[in-house]
Amino acid sequence: AGGIWWKTSRAGEGDPNVFCLYFGEGMSESVVVSKTREGVRNFHATGKVQASSHPGDMRLQRMLGHLAGLTNENPRSVLVVACGAGVTAGTFVLYPSIERIVICEIEKLVPKFVAPMFEKENYGVVKDPRTEMILDDGRHFVRTTRETFDIITSDPVDPWIKGSAALYTEEYFSACRERLNPGGVMALWIPFYECSPTAIKSLIGTFFRVFPEGIIFSNDALGEGYDAVLYGRKGPARIDVDEVQRRLTSPEYVRVAESLKQVGFSSAVSLFG
């Protein structure tokens, strides 16, 4: 009726009390939404936190969307691989030119129960009339759909979790590139934690084989961070920062600018920095 408190143990954090808001056993994974006494909500997939309302995670989740959205001059269609808390998908709700948001999620409990618990952070993307929810494996959908997109974001579970490595391969990245329209952008989340330097270098090198002009944007504050965004474009990857700033100060992009300010990005320079 109201959830339960339970104890968790995290390195360096002692034994914080955590409130369980939701638990479900899905076809592909167990799903939990928890809340700390400080008010941070976490989405756990098979025991691993995959998204949260923590400031560091919110910055990454919004970066993933806005880096792609702001560097495509007139994006109309978006594919988001992995729904999670819906924050990345929700960034595209704010773009005036977006006509279609396709979210591909393998576990049906996530869009049904998890994303609504982050509705404030994701701008109600699941209910948005432009959104279509596809229940499928991300790699299978990308390989079989005939639709092409202006933007593809990919934020699957960590590559070291069983079964997820297929979404970090050259074959998957190539399939995503084939599904991009000319000038289209792909943005991929990568973790630096719980991965060896060799594994991270391999992942980055694999992405750059498909997107040779790719860029790494680190999600760090004051020199500290634990993940990043890999950015690739179907065509030259030149970014006009002045043009992005002009858009951010235009009336049509007021909500986009506010979304960035909420996670600490006050300008185009601070985002691309």
Describe this structure in words.
It is a single chain. The protein has 273 residues and is α/β, with parallel strands linked by helices. 30% of the residues lie in helices and 30% in strands. It has helices spanning 55-70, 87-91, 109-114, 119-122, 138-144, 170-178, 197-210, 241-248, 254-262, 268-272; strands spanning 4-7, 17-25, 30-36, 41-45, 48-52, 77-81, 100-105, 131-135, 149-154, 180-191, 215-221, 224-233. Strand 9 (149-154), helix 6 (170-178) and strand 10 form a beta-alpha-beta unit. It is globular and about 45 Å long.
- The number of distinct β-strands equals 12
Q: What global shape is seen?
A: globular
Name the structural class: alpha/beta
Query: What's the gyration radius in Å?
Result: 18 Å
Strand fraction band? 25-35%
In helices, the fraction of residues equals 25-40%
- Biggest sheet, spatial arrangement of strands: 8-7-6-9-10-12-11
Number of helices: 10
Termini separation: 45 Å
- The helix/strand series, from N terminus to C terminus, equals EEEEEHEHEHHEHEHEHEEHHH
Biggest sheet architecture: 7 strands, mixed
Low-confidence residue ranges = 1-15
What is the average of the pLDDT values?
Answer: 91
